[in-house]
Hints:
Layout: E1 2-4, E2 13-14, E3 18-23, E4 30-31, E5 42-47, E6 50-55, E7 62-64, E8 67-68, E9 73-75, E10 80-83, E11 86-91, E12 124-128, E13 137-140, E14 143-147, E15 154-155, E16 166-171, E17 174-179, E18 186-188, E19 191-192, E20 197-199, E21 204-207, E22 210-215, H1 221-264
Parallel strand pairs: 3-4, 14-15
Antiparallel strand pairs: 1-2, 1-11, 3-5, 5-6, 6-9, 7-8, 7-10, 10-11, 12-13, 12-22, 14-16, 16-17, 17-20, 18-19, 18-21, 21-22
Amino acid sequence: MKLLFPNGEHEPVELKEGSAIVGAAPASDVLLAAPGIAARHCELRTRGDVTAVLPLDPQAATVLNGKQIAGETPIKPGDLLLFAKIGCRIVAMEKQAPAPLRKPAAAPNEDDGRTRVRMALPKYMLRGVSGPTFGKTYAMVGTITLGRNTDCDISISSDEISRQHAKLQVVPDGVMVEDLGSANGTFVNNQRVHGPTLLKAGDELRVDTIRFMLMSPTMDVSHAAASTVRTEAPAATAKSGGGGMWIMAGVVVLIVVALGVLRALGKI
């Protein structure tokens, strides 16, 4: 409990365990300098939840709820107490709720009972296969911007790449590619992109001269590499065969010329 003085004769007084002397003496716990206040006017005694007022000077009036008291009398919230002509009201103190106990954080190896969710791997990865991105891998998650600006998700420092070159968005069947008005174009499998175009696992994405391949966890990388080699092999063979035909034609021409020279000399 505490005492409130509505006219400002004293600041609010909290009634703590023990006793407090009210009076005009300088050593008083509650100093009230006013006519009718005795040097030791009364005593306020608090024991646990019970507080009582005890008059100390029979010549000084202590009045509780309109009645002058002569002996120790309990007081309670809502009572009006007068020390001579100075009045105060007794009010209850708000009890502060105890702070909730915080459960200590679980140790790193302690099982707190919760199932830990494993981080899901991205469904698609974009691997650089030429230029400054060669050997680099980029996880395809959500919507990704590709361009020369440093704030792009995939930033390529090349003057031939536009600031905002292309947008890549993961969809169930692959990655949807959209050109963002680039100067040198965006290509999927060497076909220029003029609208949203689906890039599937194993397909090639090219921005200007910089190439990427879309990979997926289920894709057999070694098989894909072998397929690339087999695709290029016939062309190499064809080139080799063409060179052999030219050599044979040259040999025939030389033989014909040699025969003509020998016939002219009468050797044959």
